[in-house]
Amino acid sequence: MDYTFSEIEKKWQDRWEKEQTFRAGDDRSKPKFYGLVEFPYPSGHGLHVGHPRSYTALDIVARKRRLEGYNVLYPIGWDAFGLPTENFAIKNHIHPKKVTADNIANFKRQLKSIGFSFDWSREINTTDEAYYKWTQWIFLQLFKRGLAYKQEMPINWCTSCKVGLANEEVVNGVCERCGSEVVQKNKSQWMLKITEYAQRLIDDLDGLDFIEKVKIQQKNWIGRSEGAEVDFAIAGTEDHVTVYTTRPDTLFGATYMVLSPEHPFVEKYKDKIANYAEAVAYREEAARKSEFERTELAKDKTGVMLDGLRAINPVNGRELPIWISDYVLMSYGTGAIMAVPAHDERDWEFAKKFGMPIIEVVAGGEDVQAAAYTDTSSGVMVNSGFLDGMQVKDAISAIIDDLEKRGIGHRKVNYKLRDWVFSRQRYWGEPIPLVWCEHCGWVPLPEEQLPLTLPEVDNYEPTDNGESPLAKMTDWVNTTCPKCGAPAKRETDTMPQWAGSSWYFLRYIDPHNSEALADKELLDYWMPVDWYNGGMEHTTLHLLYSRFWYKVLYDCGVVPTPEPYQKRTSHGMILGENNEKMSKSRGNVVNPDDIVASYGADTFRCYEMFIGAFDQATPWSANGVKGCFRFMERVWNLMELLTDEEGYSPELEGTMHKAVKKVSEDIERMKFNTAIATLMSLVNDFNRRGKVTRGELATFLLLLNPTAPHITEEMWERAGFAGLLSAASWPTYDEAKTVDDEIEMVLQINGKVRGKMTVPADISREDAQTAALANEAIVAQTTGKQIAKVIVVPGKLVNIVVK
RNA sequence: GCGGAUAUGGCGGAAUUGGCAGACGCGCUAGAUUUAGGUUCUAGUGGGCAACCCCCGUGCAGGUUCAAGUCCUGUUAUCCGCACCA
């Protein structure tokens, strides 16, 4: 009988939809499982083969959990606001709303063709008014708690298109579209105070089951460092400049100071700075560079010494020259550093280039004139007054105590994490629900006026002065102050795409609620998300942003737990056949539709899981897909080997119990490739023996079902098993039956395999040693040699050491 | 630069604790079946050797150990992220 996968898959997909097989239930007495995957951005390119890697993995987990008796929530939706849609709309004169609807329809068709067990009744879309009403509501909570504020921030500005650009749209310092120069332009932007949550975002990671690299990456991104702020007096003034340093112990080694080119002192003391014009020119040059370029260590250090401005080292009264240089960033610390070239690589390079003195203050390294001595953990202080002779650790405490006593410095914890720039000068995003009133300042819209909808207009193209396209829509912009009733203007910037995706997992719980973002009791039942899988590239932005929002909602009493995701795992990228990232320009893109059409969804799902280690990048292979298709055919042909015996036959009993154990454990560890390998071996065993019993087939179909749901349902039905396979129970195994009575032990001489012997599994050390020494192969090779030692590893091997 | 990872046959990968390196799949070779084969089945397949024995073999160089893909030291190469892409 032919394996007619397209008919079979259509049949079961229709059946599941009709019977609502995968709808999350209301039975709150059952244990719940909330599995989450990152909802897609519905781009015009359609589904990428990378999406199903994540979706199939958690689909397998979700299906297994249902078979294990859990009430499972496995939802999907659309993260539909965004730049590409807006740019496509502008270019082709189609409204972004229409573009979005078309793209979603296509994505939905594709996802359905793969047979994911999503609860489609909970589908959400971040661009729906009923959805973004609550995105706006959350923003208002942030605003009311003082976590949203306005600040001048630089944006990328294309001098020719006269439009703000995303970093991605800036390629080598020029505009991606027109090739013109891009400069940094200051604009007042809404900011969210994620830094206020920095410590909690670090601390609360401890209780979570996140893969270690995610935790490490988040911690490094937040970048907590302990150090001190120290005031350096400006010579000839009452003023001082404050620096942040993690190495206050090296204060005696400071030989100059460096300010960020944007540091306010450059303006403040422009009259004292003889070469002010040169400094301004340098600052303008720096403005053209991205932060990435500026901090690159490999590049040549540049800078300008401020002629006429000098600082005084508070510990020894020495006068220090003040420089500006672009490797010092205004956005970190205080925008000013003390330079200790002997013990900091960047300072050392700078000092070498500009002939600044290098003074050793920690002894124990090589010659500091030849290279900076930075890892000073075993060093001892020298040339440092009262610190001399101390260990670095003690010196840090001693110097800070001294500075604090004198009132010119104090301990300070800094975070690399910066506040979240929340404004976008774009049309296709959530409007920010605030009104500017001359009398009252920024006034939030009353909650009953939400959602503040995006005006439906024909012209959503960028303005030529850097304002959002909404700024041109005067009917919409001009309003009255909700507080005093005077004429007022709406905020015209919109929210970034991150907004809608920062809380979407909450909406799935109660997607149609018009009174709250979700019902409290339902939140109590379903939260936290039990298992969230997504890409590593989201670790430092989306994952951190959504943890931040969730914590704010927790502080507001809206959600029941301090953390949203109990478990976070991550999948590797699928590369093109040539081992490069898939992209249109490289011509190595694989379309999921083609695979489903040629081989079926089950083969596609199976291959996506068999392709390689789940957490690692792997190239696509057309031949690999064929291999999985052959596996499906061999599975299908098992029907011809089916006998009417119930249960497992004795010769395969151990194999069956081992397979159940292996597949069950492998799915939990996301070792999908080895789970499938086990199932392939099982089919080989059935074929080798020329039959499969009903009991064996039933177990096999259950184990394969999460991976290949259609073919297994069909075979389940044809074999006459009761009900839907999706409603059956996951098989169990007997640990005792996974252990063999007899095992093969390896015999080694000096660590090299020289023979094998079959012995009872529970053989004692002594018996194993005796049997090994009596073994023919061993006797032959040990005769005439002296046995120095015999090592027995029970159940594994005997190693005989001879001289 | 900072941060995160990876390196095993011709290829994707396997090897939960240090204990038979190469499971499973692809590809390849030979044979069988088939009107045909880009179908299916059987056997073989890390390298060296005619062959058993044996020797070599997990990026590279050292080390620890009865035993190292796995642990330690050093080193090289590649990939991913870097805050307005999602």
Summarize the structure in words.
Helix 21 packs parallel to helix 23. Strand 7 (170-171) and strand 8 form a beta hairpin. The two termini are 64 Å apart. The chain has 803 residues and is an alpha/beta fold. The chain has 26 helices and 32 strands. It is globular and about 100 Å long. Strands 11, 12, 13, 14, 15, 16 and 19 form a 7-stranded mixed beta sheet that branches.
Class based on secondary structure composition and strand pairing: alpha/beta
Tell me the radius of gyration: 33 Å
Number of strands: 32
Distance, first to last CA: 64 Å
The fraction of residues in strands falls at 15-25%
Instruction: Profile the largest sheet.
Output: 7 strands, mixed
Mean pLDDT: 90
How much helix is in the residues?
25-40%
Query: Which spans have pLDDT < 50 for at least 5 consecutive residues?
Result: none
Number of helices: 26
Shape: globular
What's the arrangement of secondary structure elements?
Blueprint: H1 5-19, E1 32-37, H2 51-67, E2 71-73, E3 77-78, H3 83-92, H4 96-113, E4 124-125, H5 129-144, E5 148-158, E6 163-165, E7 170-171, E8 174-175, E9 182-192, H6 198-203, E10 209-210, H7 212-222, E11 224-234, E12 240-245, E13 256-259, H8 264-268, H9 276-287, H10 291-295, E14 304-312, E15 319-324, E16 336-339, H11 345-354, E17 362-363, E18 380-381, H12 392-406, E19 409-415, E20 420-421, E21 434-437, E22 441-444, H13 474-477, E23 478-480, E24 487-490, H14 498-501, H15 504-507, H16 520-526, E25 531-535, H17 542-555, E26 567-571, E27 574-575, H18 592-599, H19 601-610, E28 618-619, H20 622-636, H21 650-668, H22 672-689, H23 694-704, H24 709-718, E29 742-749, E30 752-760, H25 765-774, H26 776-782, E31 787-793, E32 797-802
Parallel strand pairs: 1-2, 1-25, 3-4, 10-26, 13-15, 25-26, 27-28, 29-32
Antiparallel strand pairs: 5-6, 5-9, 7-8, 9-20, 11-12, 11-14, 11-19, 13-16, 14-15, 17-18, 21-22, 21-24, 23-24, 29-30, 31-32
The structure holds one RNA strand of 86 nucleotides.
